[in-house]
């Protein structure tokens, strides 16, 4: 065990919304306020109910496969300045990513408040697959909104959701990507709020979503913190994660917020580069505004119109970010850095060939950042990386990128 | 049904705040329509669709054909309360280069031609980015009456409450069938002009059957002291308007007008407005 003493000062972990500093809040149509209040009240009650926690932990153990393991990756670490790199294997969860943690928590809550229909937005499809899975498990109806652009680049996940019994609705409004899928899900919720729970997939949106989703994913960091201490006898020097909306990042950061010796690094998608218009580096290049119900950093033009984002990774292709990340950036507790498509894909390939692990392209952004960070911190550093998802869904994208598959998806031999 | 709370309604300022420094032009127009006819017709069109000039002509045509209060929508990239008809129009306006300042131009040019009060309907981020005070000052200069804020509720709108009090602009908040009595009171006490009564649970778009929820919600708002109420969402025919004006002070039409403008241009939207105005007893 450990003799590390928690700090005695005000805990950064205690923030529970609606605001994180100047970020967060609830900017939503009046039609949805009652549902948000109902959800908030139900969540506050559930939080105090040991039976809820027992049920959720049981699902984690017997369905998700918690606790997820740690894997040291020394051959990969050689390319990171020799730093000791440890992966938190959320990719090994049932459904293939960290998303299932939040989904099971919210589905359990939806059951408590008597909602029998789940709706969700999805980018890469991981959250949609997780939601479809929970709906099947709980015997609920499920509708997933997915930008038409994403249904094309993540066709395999669309098929998975359909096999699980969910209806997938391609969103053709706006830019036809993740942000428009959120808009469409909110529109559905406004019309069907009595029967429906909107199972939002990240730490964004109106209160209570950022806080509630964080609480459902913070198990990642809570497990990992203890596992790293057990393995190495000390806290890591740094913790890294990719950041789109920011759920896996807040999930692994949260347990370390009060550990001032631990550097926290979030990697945003820089797409073709942050000096182009083709990126999703919200904190690096955006400015505060209101999108999807909360105030945070966002990509927008001078008039406050949301800008299109770009990333090779559908899961990071979002012009906003969760308000708690905006706050952690503003107080300097966490660092947010951009990683280009090209650097992420190089790290993707490197993890495949050095360690036999195919990561999600989202997670590959954290791996690319870690390579650079390891070189900065040197060989004595220990870095814990959130490997948030597995790359099965990305085989086609990566196959084409590396000329292993042709444009039709056939093997090039 | 609300004895415990009835005292708080005495502070209602919804239509004509007692001794207020700023009489509401919108509440005045609605009151006048209720004196002269069955009630007021509020007409929505987005700025910049199909072009800035045509959107101005179309708004003028609405007033010339019996619309009492204009609601001009600001095209926005992420309109969560809007259905497909309005989305298509606002996306087209954005694609043809709509800028926020076009809204002030439109208000000014409309006000130079017709006398009806003009409200802007806008999602909150554009106002926030322009600067709440600067936006309000420019709207006052253009001759605008105030704002309808679909994603800003009273409890999240402290800066807008302060700015609208300083400038005297009207502020229209929404009331929904799912709102609690406490939240209805909040909307009534802080709205100036009217309370936007959401007829049904859903987004904008014409519906053949108006929800009984509208009548129930108006009853609840009245019980909380509301004296200027307009019902919107799903309203598209003169018969529906006549029915609504049997219990509310105004009826709001949006998508049906936008569709007429998209399909038949300025003349068509003027003709539809005249047909709809029959429902107000014109």
TrEMBL record, chain A:
The modification N6-(pyridoxal phosphate)lysine is found at residue 99. Residues 65-389 form the Tryptophan synthase beta chain-like PALP domain. GO terms for molecular function: tryptophan synthase activity. Pathway: Amino-acid biosynthesis; L-tryptophan biosynthesis; L-tryptophan from chorismate: step 5/5. Keywords: Amino-acid biosynthesis, Aromatic amino acid biosynthesis, Lyase, Pyridoxal phosphate, Tryptophan biosynthesis. It catalyses: (1S,2R)-1-C-(indol-3-yl)glycerol 3-phosphate + L-serine = D-glyceraldehyde 3-phosphate + L-tryptophan + H2O. It is an enzyme of class 4 (lyase). Its cofactor is pyridoxal 5'-phosphate. Its EC number is 4.2.1.20. PANTHER family: TRYPTOPHAN SYNTHASE (PTHR48077:SF3), TRYPTOPHAN SYNTHASE-RELATED (PTHR48077). The beta subunit is responsible for the synthesis of L-tryptophan from indole and L-serine. Belongs to the TrpB family. Tetramer of two alpha and two beta chains. This is Tryptophan synthase beta chain. It comes from Herbiconiux daphne.
TrEMBL record, chain B:
InterPro entries: Aldolase_TIM, RibuloseP-bd_barrel, Trp_synthase_alpha_AS, Trp_synthase_suA. This is Tryptophan synthase alpha chain. Its EC number is 4.2.1.20. Pathway: Amino-acid biosynthesis; L-tryptophan biosynthesis; L-tryptophan from chorismate: step 5/5. SUPFAM superfamilies: Ribulose-phoshate binding barrel. Residues 1-16 have a biased composition (Low complexity). Pfam families: Trp_syntA. Belongs to the TrpA family. It catalyses: (1S,2R)-1-C-(indol-3-yl)glycerol 3-phosphate + L-serine = D-glyceraldehyde 3-phosphate + L-tryptophan + H2O. It comes from the Bacteria. The alpha subunit is responsible for the aldol cleavage of indoleglycerol phosphate to indole and glyceraldehyde 3-phosphate. GO terms for molecular function: tryptophan synthase activity. PANTHER family: TRYPTOPHAN SYNTHASE ALPHA CHAIN, CHLOROPLASTIC, TRYPTOPHAN SYNTHASE, ALPHA CHAIN.
